[in-house]
Structure formats: structure tokens, C-alpha cells
Amino acid sequence: MRRESSEKMRKKIVSIALAGAMVLSLAACGGGDKAAESTTAQAAGETTTADAAAVKESKAAKQEASTAKSPDNDIVIALQADATHLDPHVSSNGVSNQITNEMYETLLTFDEDTNVVPLLAKEWSVSEDGKSYTFVLNEGIKFHDGEPFNAESVRAVYDRGLKDSSLTLQRTINAWEDVVVDSEYQVTIKLKEPNNTFINKITQFRIVSPKAMAMENASDYLAKNSAGTGPFVLSERVDGGYTKMVRNENYWQEGPSVDSLTFQVVPEDAARIAMLQTGEADVIFPVPTTDVSQIENDPSIIIDVAPATTYRYVTLNTEWALPDGRKPFADKRVRQAFNYAFDSEAYAKVVFNGYAKEPTSIFSDSIRFYAEQTPYKPDLEKAKALMKEAGFEDGFDVELIVDNTTIEQKGAVFVQQQLSQINVNVKVLPNESTANAEKTSAPLEDTTVQMWYVNWASGSYEADGSMRNILHGEKFPPEGYNTAFWNNEEFNQLLDDALKMTDDAQIAEAYAKAQAIAWEECPWIFLGNDNTINAYKTYVTGLQYKPGGTMVFRTVGLDHE
Amino acid sequence: MPNTQNEQVKTDTSFEENYIDENVSVKTNKTKEFIKKFMKRKTAVAAFFVMCFLLLMALFGPSLAPYAPEAYDYDNILAGPSASHLFGTDQYGRDIFSRILAGTPLTLGVSLSSVIVGAALGTVLGLLAGYYGGWIEMLVMRGADVLFSFPDILLAIAIVALLGPGIVNVFIAVAVFTVPSFARIMRSATLAVKGSLYVEVARSLGCKDGRILFVHIFPGTLQSLIVNFTMRIGSAIMAASSLSFLGFGANIADPEWGAMLSLGRSYLSTAPHMVYLPGLVIFITVLAFNLFGDGLRDTLDPKIK
Amino acid sequence: MGRYIARRLLETIPLMLIISIFVFMFIHLIPGDPARTLAGVEATPEEIEAIREEFGLNDPLLKQYADYMIGLFKGDMGRSLKSNIPVTELIWSRFQFTIQLVCAGLVWAPFLGIFIGVMCAIKRGTWVDLGGMFLAICGLSAPGFWLGLMGIQFFSVKMGMLPSAGLESWKSLVLPSLVMGTGIMATLARYSRSSMLETLREDYVRTARAKGQKESIVMFRHAFKNSLIQVVTILGLQIGGLLSGSVITENIFSIPGMGRLLVDSISFRDYPVIQGLLMIFALQYVLINLVVDVLYGVINPKIRLD
């Protein structure tokens, strides 16, 4: 059940944090750089309100002008939620990763622009057939428990994954054939078949000390002790309360200058804002969009607005039948009408206070191989005409399930209001995420899902991960989350072919086609991407970023008294 | 919420003294006298009018609302109170005043109906326990003890944990949470009446148990029932809105007061009227029921005050 | 005295047994197959079977209960489904926060409550009495979550005077303690007023007055001291209210106590944790009442005889 629950959490990922960042050679990654670079620039400029841009501009000036100093050298980060577990192979949701990534590192990692860059491995190469990847490791690195880091420790993580199928580590290694130790500092990972997502997924493969993993109750040990190579060492934790770490004095590269780092769980939005204002917290994440105006004029606070990799949508169950037997969502015209009736600009404004972007494809433009589509501009006349053509002029009653968090419900009610314009009467049914996970994992013959307000982010920022689990015809629940029960042969084939390709141009072409098909077919109402907003005191230095606005504290410092 | 149980405790203990001073039967001339006495308590009378107003609001409010509760206006979101929007607007630009009006039947309905059901159950159990004694009493009182050991809304939360969230389950939870206090109070009331002369007489005349219970004993326990009933409505509103606030209650799309307040807390720093005003309405409502209950008790018990 | 305590302790045992049955049955009362509920819908039949095995759901109910009780005495309440941390450990790590909150509420509220109550009784019928009692009933009627949020909005957001979350310093306890204590203050004010008024009617008070003792001495030496005994009993029951008040308070002020754990666990359907928490809450409450009863017996020896 552990696997199941983390699987659920995965859908809720707001952003995935990864191990310590190094803005190194962009060349290391290959073809995706340009796309990534331009999208960041774009995203920052195109955010639907001018506010976002203004906020960004004022950042440097503020940092210059501010004379505020931290009273101590301990950094406190107020987060909305807590990690489910500190064993990095058990938990895998966004918050868990945010916290564990300060203690555990990976062979490769992402920079701010979704490029894969070295971390524990200093270089890597791929074989001709695309089936084996060889990594050369950095030397002289020690785990928190004193064990040396080497090729054997990489192998040991793989072994742990093989032995225990309940770990979320499974998802990273399930396409692997073997891990071969070539020498003390060289390791080769062999794949069952070529897989274009491998290099992105390796950024989720967290290295833990073999000694800790060999313990009988490794997870229990790791819940209380850290055994990674990261810049911080776990010091104390109250589950659901806070997680405190101290600086790793033996860190292998340039590390943080703060004495300690505390992640404090503060679910109440207003409380997080107040904590930042009073200086109780040095960094808060996320900043609720409605509260940005509250702090943007504070001279001691800097706000960072990052394009989110999270994509929001509503699934339309194409197999769902009305009491009279008609299947409204089986008709493409109805699905398109829904998209024409939905005003994504107003959605960004009302639900995210302007801090969101209109959708231009079926996943975020910060993901590699994104291909821009023509937006469905709101057009009520056209929507009504399509509904009439499809024989649903008078609309119908439909249920929309949604998680019961404030922001999710806010969006769902907005959808309800929009669809009322074409006589569709939406009943919003908010539930705890666990209850929704039960509903949405029911197979087609048992499903009660009509519409589902949800969001998706690929933890490893790749195109396949952004589509397969939620749109591929083989990913009907309980296999995946394709609750639209949309099965398009051509789309499926494109995804399957692209996965095995090694040529970037070919991959891009296949994914572009796939996106165009889904965009035209509308298995969902396309809602948008909201920005990730972080805020921190001007005296916080050395903060780095990951894609999707995830913070990295590897070199963090405080300008203190 | 630390308050809800207090009332029960208070009535529970003060009942005995109530009782000693009072005659057993409540007759019509007494009713008149009661009304006369009650009218002297100005706060209680005021509370009574507020209560009546709330009930009228529940019945007619939704149709008197200046706006449709679902009518949105994206150009006017999170606006503070003004002449056109008395209580301001919410995150979709919906009129909060209209939504509060529309939510009155929901909020009051759930609380009233759950107290009625809980009180009925508790009364019957209490009467039976007090009258028959023995294992029935043991069972009922131990049951009440167990329920009481989950203090206050914890019991309601536990029940919702069991049944899952939702307004129907809140209704059940609040009803169950109401039962033990009535069972206890009615038991002690029954015990007191049971020994009285006219019950003895009725019994010696060969009346059936059922008749003795409901014709002779029940009316004698009526006043403690009424007092507790009024007091519990306040607790029930509080418990139900607390559950909604915690996200275990009403559908957040519905204009239930606790749920409205819960949604509003995301806007605490930018649009505090979304928290202040629904909270104020809950407060005034609970206050009215409590003041009225106080007045009732004081009128029925001339000793205190 | 020893016998009295022993008797009260013995009386508690059957109650605790019934509570334990109630809490034990919790998981069986959930509609549907408990193993399936615990495993989640995605679980394979093998996984469900494993759960059945792990939780001993194949055993006869009586044996399951016995195992549960043995575990309970060993301090083993299973593991959290969400975090896989032992429930006992999880609750223990949260316990201190809730206790801090309860104490923060108890530090001022009962005293202020009793003070208001006594003043109202002394100044009976005056505006002091009216004002005090109106304040008290307002305190009873104000929803804690409302008070708490207004407190955050005013003192933290607007004035920046008090912290709004966590439990770092005494300052961060101020607002939560306000929310925790309001109800108890109100109740005690009301209660001590009526109890004081009653004692004032007692013979010994009348006698004292008749003997011409000073009014202040009559009030405090005779009336106040005696009415306090009754007030103490109510205090015990009030602590139960505080425990449940912590659920709301902890959620508003982001304090990682047992109340927030309960709400989080309910959202996650983490049944072992819910079960454990209910058990602990009930246990605490019963024990507190036991202590109060014993105290009461100490203060007022008459009660021990019945």
C-alpha cells in the first residue's frame, strides 16, 4: 500500500526537487538546451499579468537596497506539507524529495533549465545501441555514516530495489537489465531496450550508504538518520512538524555556509506569509498567489516566480453514459465544445491571481520536446454550435471529482461556472486525495469517474512521462491514470516508437505528432500551468533552482549579524 | 470548541437543584407564569427574537437574497463590504451575504435535525435506564461513559473518521455526540420523578410501564429536556461548523457557514472579511441559542440569579 | 484514603476495557473488508492477503482483540500506513506539543474565569455581573477557529507582533493559548459564579455574617474557599474540552501535536494511527478525571464515604 499511496502523491506533485545543483557545462546534455533556454525566458515574460514580470525585475534592486540581516545563521524554510518518509527510496512525492534531496544525491541532476548535469558522476557516455550507459564517478566522496562512495554503492542501491518491490525506487529501475561495476569508480547500467527517458529518470536514483541499506530495518534507520552524500545531515525530526538538518562538514564540494537548515511544516497559507514577514521563516514555499500582493512591496522580501512544470486538466470519460444511454464524451464535438467554452485566461486570473499560463499543448512548455499548438480561444457561439450538432443543445448533468484542498476546489468550481454557459450542469464532488485515488484507480467496468479535475507533472521532466501514464491506451486504470479512457492507436504507437528512438530529431517529430493528435481530440479540458512562487528574505544568499521553481539549498547562506 | 461539553456538564449538575425546587407537573397556568417570568429577562428575550429571525432566514432568506448564491462576477473578486455587497464578495466575486442567507437552511438544518434525532434517542435511552435500572441502566450508562471519554468534538471527529466526510455523516456524528448527554440528564430526571407520589399511585393503580413512562414520567422531565435541548443546538452548530472547517463536513461548493469560513482562510491576509463575517454569523447564532437557553434555565429555576 | 483511591482505580478498569473494545472495533466498523481498506484499491489479491496476515485479520475476533491488548500493553499499536513509523513513536513525538498547548490554556484561563465568576457573584445584579456574564457567554459561543484566525490576522499579519505558527518561543504560545483558554475561562466564570452564590446562602456563611465578621472575610474565607471545591471538579471535565480544542488550535497554528496528527491521519485514512490516537485521547481523559476525583476526595473527605 505504500507504493500505492506514493503513486497517488505523485499526481499531486507541484514540483520535484532534486539533488544539489551545479550549473556546469550545458554541452554535457546535448540537443535540448536551446529549447530549454528559450522556454524559461518565454515563461517569465509571458506570465499573464505584468505583475509577475515586475516582481522579477524588482528582485535585484531589492537585494541591493536591503540592509536587513538575519539574527542567526540557521535557515528556516516554511513548507506547506511534510515529507511522507525520509527514506528516499520509500517516498517520492514533491515535498519528500524537496527535503530528502538536501541529504541524498544522485549520479546526475537537473539545472534550472531542465538540462541534465553531472553530480556524483563526473561524466557519462552512452553505447551505440543506446542500451548501456557508463558513468565515471567522482572520487573521495564519503556518506554521512563514513562509508566511501564508489561503484559498489551504486550497485547496492539497484540491489535494494530488486529485493524490495514496495519501494518507489522500482519506478526508476524497472527498465534496467543490470548494473555492472567496471572498476572502483566506473559503473555501467544496462537497459532491456533503448529508452529515451533513461537519462532523465536517473536523476531520481538516490544513492544511499550500502551500510544503512543493509540493516534489517533500513527504512526505520533512515527515518531517523541520514546516510547520503548531501550537503546536510539529519539532526532531528518531528513527523508532520519539522525536519532539522545541520551542515555536512565533510561535504565533497562547495557547500552551504549556514549552520543548520530546518524545514517547518506550515499548512496555513496566512501563517506562512506572516512567518516570512516577521522573519520567523527565511524562505517560504509555496506562496499562495493571492498573497503575492501582500508581500511584494516589502523591502526585505524577494519573490521568485517560476514557470511550473505542473499541468492542470479535467479528464472527460469517453466511455461514460448518461442515464438515457448516450455517451456525451464519446463525441469529439462535445469535448471540443468544452474547451471552447472554457476561458483559460479567466482561469489564470481568477484561480491563480494571474500567476498561470494558458495551455498551448498537453504538457508544460518547460518540458523537452514540447510542441506548441493553437489554443482553443474561448468562443461560446462555437461551443454552443458544437453541442447542438452533437445533440446536446440542452446540456446534461455530470459529476466532477476533485481533491478537497482549497486550490483544487477553487479550480473545480471555476470549471463548473464556465460549463454552465453551455447548459452543462456540473456537480463538484470534493474528496480526500486518498478517496479520489480509489475512485480513479477503478477499471473501466467499475469506474464511477465522469470528470476528474487533476494535475500532472513528470518528476523527471520528460515528454514520455508527461503523457504515457495519463493518455496511453494501455494506461487505463488501474494500470495508469487515463481516466478519459481515451485510446488512440496512432497516439499510442507514436509514444511507443519514440521511447526506443535515439535520434533527437526523430523523437521530437514523433512527440510533436502525438501532441497534435491529443490536442485535436481533446480527451481533456485543457486548463493551464500555474507558476510556482517562492519568497525569501533579502539576506538569503546562494539559493539555486531546479526546473519548476524547486529550490536547492546546496550553497545557501545567510547574511547574518 | 472547548465549550460544547461545558453546557452539558452545567445542566447536568444544576439539574438536581432545579428539580428539588420545582413542582413536578407543568400546567397551563404555569406556562403563562413562565412566559411572564421569561419576558423579564431582556437578553434572553432578545436572543429569542434573534433565534426567530434566524429561523425565518432559514425559511425565506434564500429567496430574499439580493444575488443568486452561485452568481459569479470575475471582475469583482474578493471585494470588501460595500453598499452593493453588504458582506463583500468571495474569490469568484459571489455575494457573501447572499451565500450566508442561502446557507442558513443548510447550517441550521443540519444542527437542528441532528440535535432532534440525538435528543430523541438519548431521551428514550435515559428514560428507560432511569425507570428500569438494572442491566439496561448499566448498558446505557456505560455506553454514555465510553462516548464521553472522547471529549467534545473528538467524538464527532472519530465518527466522521469512521464514516468518511460529508454533510450526512456530520449529521450522524453530531446526533451521536448529542445522545449521551441526553441519556444522562434524562436518567437522573427520571430517577427523581420515579420516586414521586403520583408515579407510585399510577403504578399501584396498575398502569402499564409504557404509560407510566410516557404519560407520567416524561412530562416531569420535560423542562430539563428543553433546557438541554436549547443548549445543545449551540454546541451542535459549533461542532458541525468545526467539522466543516476541518474539511470533514459540508461540500465546499455549498454555502455552509463553516465551509465558507474554511475557504476564506486562504485569503486571511488579503480579504479577511471572508473569515470575519461568516464567523460572526456563526458566533451570533450560537450566542442567541445559548442566551435563550440560559434564560430558559433561569426562568425554570428561580433559585439561581 | 488509600482504599478510596484503589476503589476509584478499580472502577476505571471496566470503563477502559469497554473503550479499548470500542477502539479495537473501529477498524472492523469501517464499511467493507478491513484488509481491502487497509491495502487500498490498487492492491493485488496477494497484497491484501499479506495485510490480512500482518494485521491478523484471519484470526477469530477474540484472539485479534487479545493480541491487540497485548500489543497495547507492550506499547505496540502497529505502524502508520502513511509513513510506516510505529504508531506509538509517532504519537509520542506529537504528545509534548499538545501538552504544551493544554498547559498554555490552563495557565491563565481557570484563574481569570474564577476571578470573573467570583466578582460577578459579589457584585451580583450590578453592571459588573451583567458584563462579566455576557463576556462569559460570548466566550462560550465564539468558535475557536474564528478567534484563532482573527488573532492571526490581527496580531501576526497586521501588527507583526506575534508569531503565527509553530512552537518556538513563549511568544508563539500566546495566540494558541488564547484560543485554548477562552472556553474554559467562560465556563469557569459561569460556574464559579453560581457556586459562589450558592455558598453565600449556606448557613455557615449566614452565621459568619450574623456574627458581624467583615464582608471581605466572609466572602473569601468562607464562601470562596468552599465554592472552590465544586469548581475544581468542573476543571477536570474541562481538560477534556481542552484536549479536543487542541484539534482545532493545532490546525490553525500549524502545531504538530496529536490533534493535527488526527486530522492528517483521517484525511489519509491512516487507520492504525487514528485508532492509536483515539485510544490515547480517551485514556488521557479518563485518567484526568480519575485524578480529579481523587483530588476531590482529598479536599472534601465527605465524598469518600459514599
From TrEMBL, chain B:
Residues 104-293 form the ABC transmembrane type-1 domain. It is found in: Cell membrane. The keyword Transmembrane applies. Keywords: Cell membrane, Membrane, Transmembrane, Transmembrane helix, Transport. It is a multi-pass membrane protein. It comes from Enterocloster hominis. Part of the ABC transporter complex GsiABCD involved in glutathione import. Probably responsible for the translocation of the substrate across the membrane. The chain crosses the membrane at residues 44-65, 100-133, 153-179, 233-253, 273-293. This is Glutathione transport system permease protein GsiD.
Automatic annotation (TrEMBL), chain C:
It is found in: Cell membrane. The keyword Cell division does not apply. Its main location: membrane. InterPro entries: BPD_transp_1_N, MetI-like, MetI-like_sf. Gene3D superfamilies: MetI-like (1.10.3720.10). It is a multi-pass membrane protein. The chain crosses the membrane at residues 12-30, 97-122, 134-153, 173-191, 228-253, 273-299. This is ABC transporter permease. It comes from Enterocloster hominis (ex Liu et al. 2021).
